[in-house]
Amino acid sequence: MIVAAGWLAGLTPAIGFKMMMIAITSCAVFITCLWLQRVTTPRIAFLAGLFIAASPEIVRLGREVLSDTPFWLFSMLALLAWDVATGKTADKTGSRVPMPLSWVILGSAATLAAYFTRSAGLPLLVATLAWLGFRRQSRAIAVLLALAVPLITAWWLRGQASGAGGYLAPFIAVDPYNPALGNVSITDLLERFIENLSNYTARELPQLVFGTSDRRMIAGVVLALGIIYGWIRRIKKPGVAELAVPLYLALILLWPDAWAGPRFLLPIAPVLALYVAEAVGAVSDRAKLPRVGPVAAGVAFAAAAGTATGHMVSDGELCREEYRSGDRFPCIDPPFHEFFHVAAESRGKLPQNSVVLSRKPTIFFLQSGYRSRLYPLSDQPDSLFRLAERTGAQFVLVDQIPDLAPLYLHQVMLARRDDFCVIPELSVESTVLVRIVRGAPARTGAAPNSFRTCPLNGP
User: Fold this and answer.
1) What pLDDT is stored for residue 242 in this prediction?
2) How far apart are CA 37 and CA 73, in angstroms?
3) Element (H or E) spanning 423, and its range?
4) DSSP class of residue 357?
5) Are 32 and 76 in contact (CB under 8 A)?
6) Distances (CA, A) of 45 to 48, 53, 195, 410
7) Of the ranges 46-50, 254-258, 351-355, which one carries the lowest mean pLDDT score?
8) Inter-CA distances, 24 with 74, 312, 395, 446, Å
9) pLDDT averaged over the chain?
10) Strand locations in 105-224, DSSP E?
11) What is the pLDDT of residues 130-156, one digit of tens each?
12) 60 Cβ partners below 8 Å, 6+ apart?
C-alpha cells in the first residue's frame, strides 16, 4: 500500500521512493526517541537515541526501498502506544484499571500494521497478547483480537485461494533458493541456529556500529553481552519489548542463513540500543563514574561510525554525479542495474497485456508496466513452459543475478535453446529479454550456447 501510494503520487522508483523511505526513517527515529524518553533516564535515552540516529548502517538502510523500515516504524509506534496506555492504568492506590480505549486501538492498529508489513511481526503480536494477559487487560485483548482475527483470516484465505505459500515453506527448507534439497531436520535447525548466531554476533551487530561487513567477533561479543545484561535487568518488570525481542531473535536465528543480514535487526535495533546503553550506565554507576561511562561510550561510537559515515557521504556525491550524467539507476550492482534498465526500456514496447517471467516480478512491473511472475525454481524445462502456459507469459527476462538464474533459468534455456529467441532491442551486455517460441525448427551447427534472434514486433 505504501509503494502504491508513492507510485500514484508520481514518485519514481529510483529516486522518489528513496526520498519517501528517508521520510519514513525520519519518522521512525522520532517515534523511537519518544519511546526512549518514556522508558528510561535522559542520559540513557540520549545515548541510545544517538546510536539510532547516527548508526551508519541504519542510515544506509533508511534510504533503501525495503519493508524493514516501515516495519520498524510501526513496531516502535506500537511499543510507544502500549507504554502510554500502561501509564494511564494505575490510580493513586496502585490498582489496575482498563487501558484507555483510544490508546488500545492505536496500539492494536500499529501492532497489526507491523505484522502485515512483514510476517516477522508475528512475535510482536504474540508478545503483546501475552503481555496484556499478564496485566489482566481483558478489554484490550478483546479489542486486539477483534481487529486481528478477521484480517489475518481474510489474508490467509486469500493466500490459499491464490496458491501463495507464505514464509513457512522457505523457512523449513534447507535452502529457500534450492527447493530440491528438501526440508530441514532438527539437526539442520540446530546447525542453522549456531551459524546464524555466529554471523549475527561477529558481523551483523558490529555492522550497525562500524558500517562495514567485516567480522569483528570481540566487538560483537561485547555488544551481545550488553544486550543480555540489559534485558535481564528489565525482565523483572517486562514491557512488550522484553517479551517480543527474544521471540524475534529466535525467529531470525532459526530461519535460513541465506537471509541473514543487518536489515533484520532494524525493527529491534532501538530496543537493543536501549539494553546496551543501560548496561553501560549500570557499569558506570558501579564504578562510581555515572557520567563518564555514557559520555565515553558516545564518543567511542561517534569515532567508530564517523569513518563509515564519511565514506557514505563521498559515495553519495559519486552517485549523484552518475545520476546527473544521465544514469537512471546510479550505484546499483551491475546485475540489478541491467535488470532495471531492460525492464524500464521495455515500457510501452511489448504487446498490451504481456506477461514476463522474471527474477523480481514486482520490480519488473513497477519499471515496465507489464505483469510478471517468478520463473520456476527448477531446471526442468517443462516446469517453465507449464507456468508460461498457465499465466499467458510470452517473454522471459534472463538476468545474471547470482542466486537463482544460474541454477535454474540458464539451465532450462541451454537445454531448450531452440524454444527461445533473443530480442536485441531489449537486451544489454549480460541481461536479455527473450521470447518463448515453442515449436520453432531445430537449428543445426550452431554453438551450444547461442540463441537465434527475433525482432521486437515480429513472431
Assistant:
1) 96
2) 16
3) strand 420-427
4) E
5) yes
6) 5, 12, 33, 52
7) 254-258
8) 10, 20, 36, 53
9) 89
10) none
11) 999 999 999 999 999 999 999 999 988
12) 211, 312
CA angle 146, 149, 152 (to 5 degrees): 140
Angle (CA) 61-64-65 rounded to 5° is 135
Q: Please report the pLDDT score of residue 308 as a whole number.
A: 87
364-369 contacts at long range (C-beta below 8 A, 24 or more positions apart): 364/339, 364/397, 366/3, 366/7, 366/13, 367/13, 367/340, 367/343, 368/343, 368/344
pTM for the model: 0.87
Q: Which of 33-47, 316-330, 427-441 has the highest mean pLDDT?
A: 33-47
Q: What is the pLDDT of residues 163-208, one digit of tens each?
A: 666 667 777 888 877 777 888 889 988 999 999 999 999 999 999 9
- Please answer whether residues 229 and 275 qualify as being in contact, where contact means their C-beta atoms are separated by less than 8 angstroms: yes
Q: What are phi and psi of 28, to 5 degrees?
A: -65, -40
Mean pLDDT lowest for which of 47-51, 92-96, 122-126, 283-287?
92-96
**3-state SS, residue 427:** strand
**CA angle in degrees (0–180, nearest 5) for 106-110-112:** 120
Query: What pLDDT is stored for residue 251 in this prediction?
Result: 92
The C-alpha cell that represents 423 in the structure block: 530480442
3-state helix, strand, coil in the chain (%, to 5): 65, 5, 30
pLDDT class for 265, splitting at 50, 70, 90?
very high
Class of residue 209 by CB neighbours under 10 A (exposed 0-12, middle 13-18, buried 19+) = buried
Give me the residues paired with residue 435 across strands: 395, 421
Terminal Cα distance for the chain, rounded: 38
Residue extents of the structural domains in the chain? 2-314, 334-453
List phi, psi (to 5°) of 349.
-105, -15
Cα–Cα distance measured from residue 350 to residue 210, given in angstroms and rounded to the nearest whole number? 46
Taking the CA of residue 228 as centre, how many other CA atoms within 13 Å lie in the half-sphere pointing to its CB? 7
What pLDDT was estimated at residue 370?
95
